[in-house]
């Protein structure tokens, strides 16, 4: 169904998160860096793309992949996030389009994917420091380091979004600067022929695609914080645009310098190798700066991801999908229970290896994205007159076609998953199918209290109003 000429916009998108008038909202600049850390955090972790496929495919991947995946996901996030500017983000999109059951499944898969993703950052943090502090490579010191780091960063989330947002700005600047310096120092050493090195017979496609996918997804995560954003209908699309440019540059430029200024030995290109490149190009001092930047970057990614995960749980509770205690805020306005749940999940999963974490979270994330694409297209078809402060300039057919390339990519990523990852991920999805009816049973029995915030519109009523309006416009004599 296309647009209905003359139809007025209706309230399916005119939603607002419950007011917190005494709390500061997140502005454009902190939001850009929060998105930057939700998606990227800098080139730390992209080294495996060179090890898996060589310089040419790594460079091409970080230019082409954003066109196939990042731009469509960011555009959909901008449209849907301004249509539903409340905490909960994609959970609310799917609930509105497919009903509360699938909304809950979306919330479960994306929250679990986010927690698994967040368990990666202590691992990367310690991987970058273990060359300088070998004791952090394993055993009891590593366990203690993970615990202490998680507690410190969790406390930062507890203290409020204003602190998290501006901390992301400062950490982002500190994380990007050493790569600018490395690039300037590496220009005289560049040999462009190195960028063309490729051997298709030795490409590890699974590792290559998982590395690209992990480093260029999660654009939708910022939607779960929409209720904490100042004027989200204008701020969110603008911040997504700036963040997209920042992320692509933050990946491509260091890879260009690293593969062009140093002879490429693919076996060396693993987690943390950029610090070795920095030593070759600039000396020990630059290596230490890169290692420090990596540590700061992982801190930024951790706090940004935890903010998204915890506010998602709060948004689900405000929609009556989770017990009321998830909706309670601390005196700083933060979702205390959601933070504790997310931190506990990180600690339980931090023993996994880098590759296992990336593969597992990618698998769950893929299923969640399929639901988002379906919700986006379905709302375009069923509710074309709904208010969309930012609207992608494509019709219904264009919306469907825009989702085709990323969906094909999802199928490829899923097909390349190992049997172990497949079994674990499907088991996690099955748990979500069991949790939802258990929660409903607890609500009916009165074991736990559930309620929907009165400040949020009824999505079912809004859908009915939209349908009635469309019928009146189409069938009016």
From TrEMBL:
<feature type="transmembrane region" description="Helical">
    <location>
        <begin position="360"/>
        <end position="381"/>
    </location>
</feature>
<dbReference type="GO" id="GO:0005886">
    <property type="term" value="C:plasma membrane"/>
</dbReference>
<feature type="transmembrane region" description="Helical">
    <location>
        <begin position="163"/>
        <end position="187"/>
    </location>
</feature>
<keyword id="KW-0813">Transport</keyword>
<dbReference type="InterPro" id="IPR002293">
    <property type="entry name" value="AA/rel_permease1"/>
</dbReference>
<dbReference type="GO" id="GO:0015293">
    <property type="term" value="F:symporter activity"/>
</dbReference>
<keyword id="KW-1003">Cell membrane</keyword>
<feature type="transmembrane region" description="Helical">
    <location>
        <begin position="128"/>
        <end position="156"/>
    </location>
</feature>
<keyword id="KW-1133">Transmembrane helix</keyword>
<dbReference type="GO" id="GO:0015203">
    <property type="term" value="F:polyamine transmembrane transporter activity"/>
</dbReference>
<feature type="transmembrane region" description="Helical">
    <location>
        <begin position="393"/>
        <end position="415"/>
    </location>
</feature>
<dbReference type="InterPro" id="IPR044566">
    <property type="entry name" value="RMV1-like"/>
</dbReference>
<feature type="transmembrane region" description="Helical">
    <location>
        <begin position="336"/>
        <end position="354"/>
    </location>
</feature>
<feature type="transmembrane region" description="Helical">
    <location>
        <begin position="239"/>
        <end position="264"/>
    </location>
</feature>
<feature type="transmembrane region" description="Helical">
    <location>
        <begin position="421"/>
        <end position="439"/>
    </location>
</feature>
<keyword id="KW-0812">Transmembrane</keyword>
<keyword id="KW-0769">Symport</keyword>
<feature type="transmembrane region" description="Helical">
    <location>
        <begin position="26"/>
        <end position="46"/>
    </location>
</feature>
<feature type="transmembrane region" description="Helical">
    <location>
        <begin position="90"/>
        <end position="108"/>
    </location>
</feature>
<comment type="similarity">
    <text>Belongs to the amino acid-polyamine-organocation (APC) superfamily. Polyamine:cation symporter (PHS) (TC 2.A.3.12) family.</text>
</comment>
<feature type="transmembrane region" description="Helical">
    <location>
        <begin position="52"/>
        <end position="69"/>
    </location>
</feature>
<dbReference type="Pfam" id="PF13520">
    <property type="entry name" value="AA_permease_2"/>
</dbReference>
<keyword id="KW-0472">Membrane</keyword>
<protein>
    <submittedName>
        <fullName>Amino acid/polyamine transporter</fullName>
    </submittedName>
</protein>
């Amino acid at each position: 169904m296309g647009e209905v000429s003359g139809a007025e916009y209706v309230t399916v998108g005119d939603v607002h998160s419950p007011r917190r008038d005494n709390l500061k909202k997140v502005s454009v600049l902190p939001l850009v860096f929060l998105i930057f850390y939700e998606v990227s955090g800098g080139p730390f972790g992209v080294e495996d793309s060179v090890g898996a496929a060589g310089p040419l495919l790594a460079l091409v991947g970080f230019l082409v992949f954003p066109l196939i995946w990042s731009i469509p996901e960011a555009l959909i996030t901008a449209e849907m996030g301004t249509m539903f500017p409340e905490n909960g983000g994609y959970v609310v999109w799917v609930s509105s389009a497919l009903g509360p059951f699938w909304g809950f499944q979306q919330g479960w898969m994306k929250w679990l994917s986010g927690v698994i993703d967040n368990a990666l950052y202590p691992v990367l943090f310690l991987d970058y420091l273990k060359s300088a502090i070998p004791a952090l490579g394993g055993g009891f010191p590593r366990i203690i380091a993970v615990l202490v780091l998680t507690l410190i960063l969790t406390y930062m989330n507890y203290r409020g979004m204003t602190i998290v947002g501006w901390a992301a700005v400062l950490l982002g600047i500190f994380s990007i600067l050493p790569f600018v310096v490395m690039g300037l120092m590496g220009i005289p050493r560049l040999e462009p022929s190195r960028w063309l090195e490729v051997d298709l017979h030795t490409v590890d496609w699974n590792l290559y695609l998982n590395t690209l996918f992990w480093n260029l997804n999660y654009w939708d995560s910022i939607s779960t914080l929409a209720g904490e954003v100042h004027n989200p209908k204008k701020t969110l699309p603008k911040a997504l645009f700036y963040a997209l440019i920042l992320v692509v540059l933050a990946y491509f430029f260091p890879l260009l310098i690293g593969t062009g200024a140093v002879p490429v030995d693919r076996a060396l290109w693993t987690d943390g190798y950029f610090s070795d490149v920095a030593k070759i190009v600039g000396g020990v001092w630059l290596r230490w700066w890169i290692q420090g930047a990596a540590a700061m970057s992982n801190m930024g990614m951790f706090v940004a991801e935890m903010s998204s995960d915890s506010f998602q749980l709060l948004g689900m509770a405000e929609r009556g999908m989770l017990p009321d205690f998830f909706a309670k805020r601390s005196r700083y306005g933060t979702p205390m229970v959601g933070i504790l749940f997310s931190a506990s999940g990180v600690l339980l999963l931090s023993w996994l290896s880098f590759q296992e974490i990336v593969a597992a979270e990618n698998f769950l994330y893929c299923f969640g994205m399929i639901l988002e694409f379906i919700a986006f297209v379905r709302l375009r078809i069923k509710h074309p007159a709904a208010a969309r402060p930012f609207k992608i300039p494509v019709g219904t057919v264009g919306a469907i076609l825009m989702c085709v390339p990323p969906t094909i990519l999802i199928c490829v990523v899923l097909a390349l998953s190992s049997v172990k990852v497949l079994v674990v991920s499907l088991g996690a999805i099955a748990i979500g199918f069991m949790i939802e009816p258990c929660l409903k049973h607890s609500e009916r029995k009165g074991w736990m209290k559930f309620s929907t915030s009165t400040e949020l519109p009824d999505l079912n009523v809004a859908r009915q109003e939209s349908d009635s309006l469309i019928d009146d416009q189409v069938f009016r004599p």
